[in-house]
Amino acid sequence: MSLNQIERAQGLRVRSTQDLAGGLFMIALALGAFVFTWDLPSGTLRQLGPGMLPKAFAVICAGLGAMLALASLRYNGEKLSGWSWKGIFFALGGALLFALTIRGFEFGPIRVPALGLLVSGPLLIFFSGLAADDRRIKELLIFAVAMSTACILLFKYALSLPIPLAPWLLGI
Amino acid sequence: MDMLANLSLGFSVALTLKNIGLCFVGCLVGTLIGVLPGVGPIATISILLPITFGLDPTGALIMLAGIYYGAQYGGSTTAILVNIPGEATSVVTTLDGHQMAKQGRAGVALGTAAIGSFFAGCVATVIIAALGAPLTRLALLFGPAEYFSLMVMGLCFAVVLARGSILKAFCMIMLGLLFSTVGTDLETGQERLTFGIPSLSDGIDFSVLAMGVFGFAEVLRNLEAPEARDVVKNKIGRLLPGWDDIKQSIKPVLRGTAIGGILGILPGNGAVLGPFASYTMEKKLAKDPSRFGKGAIEGVAGPESANNAGAQTAFIPLLTLGIPPNAVMALMVGAMTIHGIIPGPQVMTRNPDLFWGMIASMWLGNLMLLVINLPLVGMWVKLLQVPYRLMFPAILIFCCIGIYSVNNQPLDVAFTALFGLFGYLLIKLGFEPAPLLLGFVLGKLMEEKLRQALIISRGSFFTFVERPISAGLLLVAVAVLAIALLPSMSKKRDEVFTE
């Protein structure tokens, strides 16, 4: 290896995109927290105000983030890997559907009636189940119904949690 | 004698038909969920938290203890049968346990693990009963300054003992502390970082954070990786270890129990070290160390006992000082708070039947594991074969119903999804989220104690180094960090965690 190459290898360049992104992420979160607690009084050491600790923690977070980002220029580490958008869309989307339909929802012109666990349950299972690469629609449909029935029996009847079942149909 | 009287009080509480039943159900469902690959004890407990809501506090805690042991044992089962450790403490079990399973001795490995764990559990229960009262008395001597320093020390231990980079673990702890400041300030009533959202004014809900970051994010992580499940195809074989196996395991079990029990008491995450230490020790003491990694029964018996002893003595800092030593215990704090119990020295004095009942139920939980889990091994193996495409929708619906039931708030479910996204981001960025939960739970308490200490000392930070106990605790914290950051040690640490 020629001297030139060694020098280049020791120079600063991004050696771990994961750590760099992690560092920047910490700094961004810290900045956000710092900005939003700006108005809160810090108080004095004798009588700490509500703003003191959030600001102190935010400063430490930013410092750690900066260290992490700098370290990514110095030490080799892992690369960022791709996201699973399908997982995010279907799995988290399923949870959102559940949140929207379980007790109904009203936002401006959009109105969703309270559908209860009887509908929200199968909806969640079916929609989120689409995230799997090896999904089988028929199997998923049967599973959605079976699992929801089991959940209704377990949570509504065995544990008697106050969760709406089907207000539009049964009134409970 | 006090101890015996207390224990008998505990057993009189735990041995009612209802509480035995709750403990039994807890162990059963804890194992049921904990045995699913990719679902560790933290996720298991957060998923199952809602099923305890309808119970009285004592019953709920007894059930939670059962869930906890079930989840722990479920983790060991997957480690042995599928080679997937549920959490850091069962990593070591995969080394020899899975090899034994491949040789057709899965049953013996599971049996040894269960018997070793039961023995360790019995010893640890006695330790807790013996140390509970004196440590609680000690805790009452602690002022705010000592508490604050103790928590600083605990967090330092947690940073050092976390998996992966120390710097990243530090980031997670601080982020957890930052999250804990969200909500109404207790002294001035001012809202902090709530963005005008009413449900944030009480702070970020603990179960929302836990289930988002550990339940949802874990699902997203597992969805992206094509699954490689190495489920043992061989027969499970007989469960009870033979005479030779017992002879080989007795000493490792004894040593593992001692190591794990002692390390578990540390207010940092000491329990995680137990199995590693025990494995290393057995390997050093063995006549033929080359058998290790190829299905040596000592490599299952020792670490599993250490694991269970540590899992149980980790309750000591929680029950006596009110300070959770690791993420699972932080979860227990959350669970107790939901039931209106603030963990700490006052629990033992104010609710003795709850305190001792829970300790007695720990022993009961260990017994249950032995009695129900071994005969059900066949069922667990079947469960391991359920494809993930059906497993994760089931996990999701449990999480959603659970979150909804905490406050009957659909908005909480949406928040959980948001935290799931956040947790997935953390995973993508290489952060291990367990320290975040610990920081989050300790944050509020730390702020309170810091403020009190500074009021008492009239704004002088020197109070933390002037008071001898507090200074000693801080010294330990600094020493631990310094030792971990030494180049030679950080190399060793990497070795320990990659082994």
Folded structure, characterized:
The complex is a heterodimer of chains A (172) and B (499). With 172 residues, chain A is mainly alpha-helical. Chain A has 2 domains: 17-74; 85-158, no CATH class. Chain A is 60% helix and 3% strand. Chain A has helices spanning 3-10, 17-36, 52-74, 85-102, 117-129, 137-158, and strands at 105-107, 110-112. A two-stranded antiparallel ribbon of chain A has the order 1-2. In chain A, a hairpin with a 2-residue loop joins β1 (105-107) and β2 (110-112). The radius of gyration of chain A is 25 Å and the shape is flat. The N and C termini of chain A lie far apart (77 Å). Chain B has 499 residues and is mainly alpha-helical. Chain B has one domain (2-498). Chain B is built from 23 helices and 2 strands. In chain B, a hairpin with a 6-residue loop joins β1 and β2 (191-192). The model of chain B has no long low-confidence stretch (mean pLDDT 84). The chains are: A mainly alpha (172), B mainly alpha (499). Chains A and B meet through α2, α3, α4, α5 and α6 of A and α8, α9, α18, α19 and α20 of B.
Attribute tags:
heterodimer; A: 172 residues; mainly alpha; 2 domains; two-stranded antiparallel sheet; B: 499 residues; globular
Question: TL;DR of this structure?
Answer:
The complex is a heterodimer of chains A (172) and B (499). Chain A is mainly alpha-helical.
Count the DSSP helices of chain A. 6
State mean pLDDT of chain B (0 to 100 scale).
Answer: 84
Radius of gyration of chain A: 25 Å
**What is the chains' assembly state?**
heterodimer
**Low-confidence parts of chain B lasting 5 or more residues at pLDDT below 50?**
none
* Element-level helix/strand string of chain A: HHHHEEHH
Low-confidence stretches of chain A: none
- The level of helicity of chain B is over 70%
**Order of adjacent strands in the largest pleated sheet of chain B:** 1-2
Report how far the terminal alpha carbons of chain A are from each other. 77 Å
Structural class of chain B: mainly alpha
The biggest chain-chain interface is:
A-B, 79 and 66 residues
